[in-house]
Every structure is written in C-alpha cells, then in structure tokens.
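To: structure subgroup
Subject: Chain for Friday's discussion

All,

I'm putting the inputs and outputs inline so they're searchable in the archive.
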Amino acid sequence: IIACQGLPLISGQNCDPYATVTLVGPARSDQKKTKVKKKTSDPQFDETFHFEVTRSSSYKGRSHFHVEEEDIEKLEIKVELWNNGNLAQDVFLGETRVSVKILRNDIVHRAWYLLQPKGNGTKSKPDDLGSLRLKVTYTEDNVLPSACYTALRNLMLKSPDVKPISASAAHVLGDICRESLGYEALLPVVRLLLHHNRLLPFLTSVAALELENTQEANTIFRGNSLATRCIDDMMKIVGKSYLTVTLKPVLNEIFESNKTCEIDPVKLKEGDNVEVNKENLQGYVQKVFTSITQSSSSCPPLMCDVFRSLRQLASKRFPADPHVQYSAVSSFIFLRFFAVAVLSPHTFQLRSHLPDPEISRTLTLISKTIQSLGSWGSLSKNKLSSFKETYMYDFFKLFQEDECIEKVKKFLDEISSNVSKESSGVEDSFVLKEGEVHKRAQGRKRIGKKNFKKRWLRLTNQELSYHKQKGKEALCVIPVKHILGVEKLEESAFNRKNMFQVIHSEKPLYVQAGNCVETNSWIEVLSQVSRCNTGRLSTFHPSAYVGGLWLCCKEPSENTPGCKPCTATVLANIQLDIDCDRETERIFSFFSSNRSRLQKMEDACAGMSVYLGQQEECSAFTIQDPKETFRTIKELGEVLDDLQAHHDSKGALTDEPGTIENPIVGKTA
C-alpha cells in the first residue's frame, strides 16, 4: 500500500486514515491493517503485506498432501480506507478491488485506483472519495525434486547445534532479511525445524542469545526480535487447536449474545447504563480468564517444553528476581497468544468474519484486561498503575487481586514446570473427551471380529476408562500417570482402519475410532494429558504381537523394545502437513533476493577478523564469532549457487508452456 490522495474531509477536518487489506476468495478472507496516519488527506503508507496462496501444482505427485487448490482467477485484493474514530466509531472512506488475475508471475503491477463506495458501486463521481496507489506482486516458487534441496535443508537443520547460534544458517537468514521483510523469512525455517523435531533446541538458543542482551528483568521478551517472532510463529502453528478448545466456545457466546460492554464515559451512547455494561464486561472477562487458566491440560507439549526452557533461562539470567520466571512465560502465553486471539479471532480461524465495531470494542476491552490479569501473577503486585484510563482502573478493581494472582501462577506453573500435574486429591476431576469406540479385548483369545467390542471410552484429567455404555460402571480404569505412550496402529495389524494404541504398564489397549479425525483427536488429547509422565517410552511397535511375534519387526519376544521412535509430541499431524521441499524453496527464495546483504555480512565478518573489532558496517548484523559466521556464509553461498543451477536447468527444460512438465491450465466451467 503506497499512498492515497484527496481523501474526503471528516467534519471539515483532515482525517486520520488507515487501510485494511483483504485477500478475498471462495474459501478465505484474510485481513491485515496499516498503521494510522494522523491528520492528512494525502497519507503516505509505504507498507507491504504478504499473503500465501495454495497451488496444488506445487504438490504434483505427492498424493499424501490433500491440498485444496485456490483458483488464482477467483482471488481479489480488497483495500478499504477508514478514518480512525479514536473515541467514536471508525468511518468508512472508500474501497478498491484488484483481481489477482491481472498479475503474471513476477510481474509488478503498480497503479493508481479511484476509491469507490462499498461494494464497488459506480454511483460516486470520480473525485468524490480520493484515490489510492497500489503495488501488487505475485511470485510463484517452483518446487524442484526433493534431492535438489538436501544440502540447503541439512544446513538449516544443523542450525540448532551451531555455536554461537548467531553463526547458524537460520539466524543468518533472519539477520539479512530483517530490513526488507522484518522476520517474515523465519516462518519457513520454523516449519522446517518443526517437521524434523529440531525446533525446541533452536528456540532455546535464540532465546538465550536475546536474554544475554536484556539488561532489565521487566523488559524480558517485550520487543519484536528474532526469538519472539520464532516463538510467535511456533505458537500460531501448534496452538491452533488449543485456541479452538479454549476460546472458541466463549467467543461464540460473546458474538451471539452481543451485550453492550462500553465502560468509557466518553463513548457511551444515549440510554446506556455504565453499571450494566460493567457487569456484562466483567462476566465475559471472567469466562475468558477461567477458560484460559483451566486449560493447562490442553496446552500442546511443544509449547510447554518451550515455556519450561524460557523459565529456566530467565531464572538463570536474573537469579535475584523471583517474578521473572513467570513473566518470561506470561509475555508469550497471555500477551502474544491469548490476548491477540481474543482481539482478532478471525485471524486464528476462531470466527469466519471480522467482528462489527461494537463487538470489536468489547473484544478490545476483554483483551486489555486479560493482558493485565496475565501479567499480574508474574510481575509486581500492583498492576493498577499500568492503566492510563481511569475507567479501566475502576473496572480492574472489581477483580480479586490475590485470587487472580494465584490462578495465573498455578496455570503458568502447570504449563512450564517439570512436574507432572498429578492428582492431589484436591484437584477436581473433569472430563477431557468421551465417545463410542471399538476396543480389542486384552486377553489372549483368537483374533477375530468378535474380539472387538463396542465400548464407551472416557478420559478425565486423572484416568482413562472404558464402559459397556455411557453412564455405566467402568470395566477398566487406567490412571493417566501410568500411560507411557499413545501411538497410531498400522491398519495391517487387525485389518482395521483408524486404530490407535494406549501403551501403559500392562498390555497395550488397542482402540478403533469412528474416523481419522476422531483417531487424531483421541491421540492428541491422550498425549497432552500424559506428556509429563515419568518413564514415557522412546520407541514403540507400530503393529501388534500376534502368533508369537511382532508383525512389524518379526521379533519373537513380547518384551522386545519398540522398533520405531515414538512420535515426539502430538505434532504428528501438523508435521505431516508441512511440505519440506516447499519450505526449503521459500528459504532459498529469501536468501536469493537478499544475496547482496549476505555479501555485506560476509565482508563484515572478514573485516572483524582482520581488524579484531566491531566495525561500523557490522552493527546491522549479529556477529559474535566472525570466523564461524564467515564459514557458514561461505557454505551457504556454495549451496545457493548449486540450487540456482538446478533451477536454471529445470527452467530451460520446462518453461515452455504446453510441454508435459508444464501443461497449460484450461478454463473450467
């Protein structure tokens, strides 16, 4: 979004404009927003937004990826201009829509557009609403055969082991792209490391590097840095279902009941009762707060592992501050995860559409309060001083401070401590999941259909049990703390689909769910609730022990250790959705478009080695060990040149439209 000219005056004054940018298509409506420009009818925005489009052609020949192709012909970019109302409602100024089909690969489209009334009407005169200048680029990555990416992929996967971490290929990429892309280039790195179970050590190392440069405990992880961006990306990827379970029900209630919650005296409408509104808002905040603080058993294991690591690093860095171990975790889980999701539920697929202005205002007030409640237990006692507005100060006093602090601390402990959340007798038992399944008898009877019986499976935070029917007495109870692993079972084991196994101290429990979604859901919730158990297995048998041997590895002893590594966490399904070749191609693309910056970084390393000190041109980069960083950059250069050669030869063969490798996509009805 470059600039606008001649935007209309609001009440005779220059407006405070901002733009929203939405990529609109049959199955999507992603919205992003520019900063607000103050008191101008000719704002200069100069902001860039990225949207990712799924093309099934990039998955050609990979049948295990179920990718819904997005038709480029049907996508359009919608830009709306708004006046920021500040204390009043935002005012719509005009919009323009640009079809993506005007673009060709790597062709830059730059043009002025007249702003139109809502829905691209034609009633307005040309000069009524002003005009907008856009630059749109559509770039397509051509994904090569997997073998071409081996060298670059291995170099990226080696990153967590490089000492210092700033000399790793992944950190170098973040460094050279920071000026042009912010930390956008790190998303494919996070996905790639996640797929290969290498993300935790990388996040730990970059967080440790950031803490080295943090001077005060109260500013811990507050800025936008390489470490915070990577952890943000990780939470968005692995925490999607966690948000759905925790926030979706209460957000649906807020949207559907739509009670007025405005408590700012300046913004009250005629007939509003501030006390009633305050009560409405307090009720919503209480529900959101309770949903969050009781959700620890649903928090994905990888997030818990990262939080545990952050907590230890923070305590080590600031040993004199007892609160810092909590603020290291709350600055992510409350400020960067839950508060953001409450504020913009549509960006996390918790709601399909943008909220209307009134609900949006309610969500803003809830989000503000949740942020403060979340940081209450982790920082100083008196959080009331953090509110600039008197009405927020008065509202916040309605919450029982000590009670909230205890709840927040308990929640932060549960998602970040080494200790399993074992039942203490005081903790209430609550149901996490239940439903009808088929269970294989655990005896030694001949295997056959009669050995599978319909049962009601029920999981609480303390035990897994199965019953003849819902509400009947349990036929078998397995304490959660005895679960050693939860894994899928090969279809060939019993010639049945959608099977999984619960491995515990006795014989494995073999269960068949109704469909693959249910199977994944059971595996996910069982893995989450047992993730901190001591003695969890590192290997398992993906098939059954039948006729005196394991079907998978043919070993005769029933006590033989597993022949396959256990799924590290419940990330299995998310990891399957990551196409490593595609992510490595994105990484290559980011490196290629920033080769000049990579060269500058190489020169800076050489300069530091020769002059033994920090030169002026080095300040743009993080260079702790010039020799190690120089070695990484040299290796990167060779790998990138080699990959470029593959692209050039591939392009020479297949760029011609109409060949078998590059068929022309015909029009569909």
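Points worth raising on Friday:
The chain has a mean pLDDT of 81.
The first strand starts at residue 3 and ends at 5.

D.
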